[in-house]
TrEMBL record:
<dbReference type="Pfam" id="PF13561">
    <property type="entry name" value="adh_short_C2"/>
</dbReference>
<dbReference type="InterPro" id="IPR036291">
    <property type="entry name" value="NAD(P)-bd_dom_sf"/>
</dbReference>
<dbReference type="InterPro" id="IPR002347">
    <property type="entry name" value="SDR_fam"/>
</dbReference>
<protein>
    <submittedName>
        <fullName>NAD(P)-dependent dehydrogenase, short-chain alcohol dehydrogenase family</fullName>
    </submittedName>
</protein>
<comment type="similarity">
    <text>Belongs to the short-chain dehydrogenases/reductases (SDR) family.</text>
</comment>
<dbReference type="GO" id="GO:0016616">
    <property type="term" value="F:oxidoreductase activity, acting on the CH-OH group of donors, NAD or NADP as acceptor"/>
</dbReference>
<keyword id="KW-0560">Oxidoreductase</keyword>
């Protein structure tokens, strides 16, 4: 039997790269779609932007008969000038949603025909615990929170639309992960201490592999009866309410 094909947006670093590695280990053929090439041997790289609908469609067409789509591409709110609603900047809001929410919507649309043609296909989106809790503490990037919360609802809609074709759609909501997007946590001792308290199971940031392993599971046949779910990988973030 031919190896199943997966496309991972944002696959060149962080959670996306960890997902590519986990899928490779499970026997998938993996294509990374990112602005940079994948550092992993065995991963095919497509240089494209998730905000470019035509580029997404070309990437999907070149990836072969897809069995899985992982929507991992994202930017931090702070990198786009995002902030609290009282200091709202429409351009920053639009920039964050364009990548973190609209990008997943466009990727799913580009891959839909290919995925619904494959038995047991799956979509996995990457939200955030901040999209479930509304943020709080030092995290006041409201566009980021809105985009990550929107992914939860988008995933449910995709699951409902795809069920009759056997297409599953699920969402993962990580806590704070040791990725380039979380660099400021690593560089600020007070912030790192706050995050450690919020994630008492580990007392530290999560590692990308903690999330990539779950995503690979959700893409595979062992999760064939799981759809429309948002699964938090947050090391206990939500336990204190």
């Amino acid at each position: 039997m031919a190896e199943p094909q997966a496309l991972v947006t944002g696959g060149a670093s962080g959670i996306g790269a960890a997902t590519c590695a986990a899928l490779l280990a499970d026997g998938w053929m993996v294509t990374s779609l990112d602005l940079r090439p994948s550092p992993l041997t065995g991963v095919r790289s497509v240089i494209a932007d998730v905000t470019d609908e035509a580029g997404l469609r070309a990437a999907v067409a070149s990836a072969g008969p897809l069995r899985a789509l992982v929507c991992s591409a994202g930017i931090s709110g702070s990198s786009a000038g995002d902030g609290p609603v009282e200091a709202a900047d429409a351009a920053a809001f639009d920039a964050v949603l364009a990548v973190n929410l609209r990008g997943a919507f466009l990727a799913a649309g580009a891959a839909w025909a290919a995925l619904t043609a494959q038995p047991g296909a799956a979509i996995v989106t990457v939200s955030s615990v901040l999209g479930l809790t509304g943020g709080g503490g030092p995290f006041r990037s409201h566009a980021y929170v809105a985009a990550k919360g929107g992914l939860v609802s988008l995933t449910k809609a995709l699951a409902a639309a795809g069920a009759a074709s056997g297409l599953r759609a699920n969402c993962v909501a990580p806590g704070l992960v040791r990725t380039p997007l979380a660099r400021r946590v690593s560089e600020d001792p007070a912030l790192a201490e706050w995050v450690a308290a919020k994630q008492p199971l580990l007392g530290d940031l999560l590692e990308p592999d903690d999330v990539g392993a779950l995503i690979a599971f959700l893409c595979g046949p062992a999760a064939r009866a799981v759809t429309g779910q948002t699964i938090a990988v947050d090391a206990g973030w939500q336990l204190d309410g």
